[in-house]
Amino acid sequence: MNPIYIAIALAIWFLVGVVIAYKAREYLGKGMPEFFLANRKLSGFISGMTYSATTFSAFMMVGLVGLTYSTGVGAVGFEMIYIIFTILLLIIFAPRFWVAGKKYDIITPPELMAKRYNSKWVGIVSSVICLTMLIPYASVQMMGVGFLLEGMTSVSIPAFEVFGVTISSLYLIGVLLVAGFSGISAFWAGMRSVSWTDAFQAIIMLAASIILVIFVFYHFFGSPSGFVTEITTEHPQLLELNWNLPMFIGLTLPWAFFALTNPQVSQRMFVSDSVKSIKQMIIYFSIFALIYTVITTLLGLSIAGTGLEVADPDRAMPVLLGNVPIILALIVFVSIFAAATSTLSSVTLTLSSLGSRDLVKKVKPSISEKLEVYSGKIIIIIILLCCIVFANLRLDMIAVLSSMASGGLLVMAPTIIGSFFWKRSTTEAALASMVIGGIITATLYIAGAAYYPLGWWPSFWGLLITVAIFVIVSLITEPPEGTEKFLNEVEEGVEEYGMV
Amino acid sequence: MKIRTLGFIAILMAAILMAVLSIGVPYTLLGDIARFWASYLFWTVLTCITIVIGYLHLRDWSDKR
Q1: What is the CATH number for A270?
Q2: Which residue of A85, A343, A362, A471 is surrounded by the most CB atoms within 10 Å?
């Protein structure tokens, strides 16, 4: 495809995005809650759309499509289990996060943990884990667009080398475009501009995927039933569950707890303006998630049915887009770009809030709120630069890399769950489980599959060890001062707001 | 701490049930069947059931009483 078409499509999209971000800036007030949480005033629709656009990234239309194309129906289970648990976790935890956030003026999930465990170190450790694990995840968003640009354009621009790493020019352009727009969106008006642009992007993501799957069914297979017949008769192995159990659990476990352990989504439990909005957020997300997942997995299967030559799974979608009308390819490209930027801008904004609130503020408590916001903005730039470098290393498959990042974050699950539902849980247990669990999980991932004990994945061992440490240490130490009060106040708030 | 409501316990039970079903059924009964109505449909239906359970639970949530 001629890159001029892509440039025009992106320019139009940029223009709309920038206008939305600019309008959001008009409403921007002063202070941390305003910049990082839109002053807890988001409506149900915007909350639901920003939750959906943040959680569903370039991974869906590039990574999940590729994973379904290459490994079949196991990818469907992996993603559906994510939806099932996200709905249930949101019902259980969103009221508690929301009440605690309002009551104690909490802005970040690690800050909530620090409050419950009465220790700034709990906040610092969980922030460091988030920062370490989310850089690869954020970089994956850039990689998705980089692969797409490379796969879709017919021109070839010579690659070049930096410090021994070969960098493809088109790939780098894709990476820089995502970084640039995410930066503008997060930097300009914080959560308000990010959530507004997210809502716009979520609509584009869903609409484009629906149009694409309808086109693919009729163009390549004659009808939806033609598609079903083709896959059932010619590619039946894709409908059989051929993921081995350790791989399925290893990839699914971090996904199942994603809603709690990934701060860019758990922070969204703070932003709704009312109980009605939280309710709507969960319902809108549920419907969006189901439709989007069904479509992306059907697209993955259909690429196998088309017989198109695909070099590696992450290139399945670019190859498909090379074989559909230009206008449709452009709409889908923009939608994937939207998915990537919406996730990246949310991750960047959340990480910057963690950096300024849970690290800078803890090191220098006397810092003014204005300087806190300013330090957050500098952190946005630093994070984006780190992501650009990481994305250019082009490590491993997108799907596996995303799950690895969530596998690392999984070590925070016992601490988060225990903070609301086990009054025996202690500060020492939170710290020991996150630090030791984090080190073991990261070591196993780095060591590689050959070193996985009994063939089970690091996320499985990480969670098992983390739970064991959390329970044992909690039983031999004392809960921090104020535990009873915290739990009572949160539960009373939940009851008072009728979210029981 | 307050005693949990019936609705809350139902959500917890649903979480445990979903965890068992979503892995147990495809890996024991449906995994070898190369049809859309097997694992693919099973997971999709299970997600739909969760959405309905969630909706029924959320219906009762309302702003400050």
Answers
A1: 1.20.1730.10
A2: A343
Taking only the tens place, the pLDDT of each residue in B41-65 is 999 999 999 999 999 989 888 776 5
- Domain map of chain B by residue range? 6-58
Nearest to B44 among A80, A248, A496 (CB): A80
Q: Which of A418-427 are b and which e, b meaning 16 or more Cβ less than 10 Å from the residue's Cβ?
A: bbbebbebbb
Contact A92 B23 (CB under 8 A): no
Q: What distance in Å separates residue A146's CA from the closest CA in chain B? A: 31
What's the CA gap between A379 and A387, in Å, rounded?
12
Residue A242 inside a domain? The answer is yes
Write down the ipTM of this complex.
Answer: 0.94
What is the arithmetic mean of pLDDT over A210-239? 96
Res A6: pLDDT? 84
- A447 in a structural domain: no
With an 8 Å Cβ cutoff, are B22 and A496 in contact?
A: no
Cβ separation B27–A241 shorter than 8 A: yes
Q: What is the pLDDT of residue A137?
A: 83
- B47 interaction partners in chain A (CB closer than 8 Å): 80, 83-84, 290, 293
The answer to whether the Cβ–Cβ distance between B40 and A239 falls below 8 Å is yes
Report yes or no on A192 lying in a domain.
yes
Alpha helix ranges (H) inside A105-119: 109-116
Chain A residue with the nearest C-alpha to that of B20: A81
CB distance A17 to A181 below 8 Å: yes
Helices and strands in chain A: count of H runs, count of E runs: 23, 2
Helix (H) or strand (E) holding A165: strand A165-167
Judged on CB neighbours under 10 Å (0-12, 13-18, 19+), A116 is buried
> B16 — contact with chain A (CB < 8 Å)?
no
The CB-side HSE value for A83 (13 A sphere, CA atoms) comes to 30
Q: Which residue type is seen at A258?
A: F
Contact assessment for residue A171 and residue A146, using Cβ atoms and an 8 Å cutoff: yes
Contacts of A91 in chain B (CB under 8 A): 11, 54, 57-58
Judged by CB atoms closer than 8 Å, whether chains meet at A240 and B31 is answered as yes
At residue A338, what are phi and psi to the nearest 5 degrees?
Answer: -65, -40
Quickly tell me which residue has 């569903």 as its tokens.
A56
Does residue A85 belong to any structural domain of this protein? yes
Report how far apart, in Å, the C-alpha atoms of A241 and of each of A31, A72, B26, B34 are.
Answer: 51, 7, 7, 8
For A360-370, the pLDDT digits (tens) are: 888 888 888 88
Which residues span the domain enclosing A181?
3-397
pTM: 0.92
A109 burial type by CB count under 10 A (0-12 exposed, 13-18 middle, 19+ buried): buried
| Residues in B touching A248 (Cβ below 8 Å) | 23, 27
- Which two tokens mark A444? 């196993």
Which positions ≥6 away from A443 have C-beta within 8 Å?
none
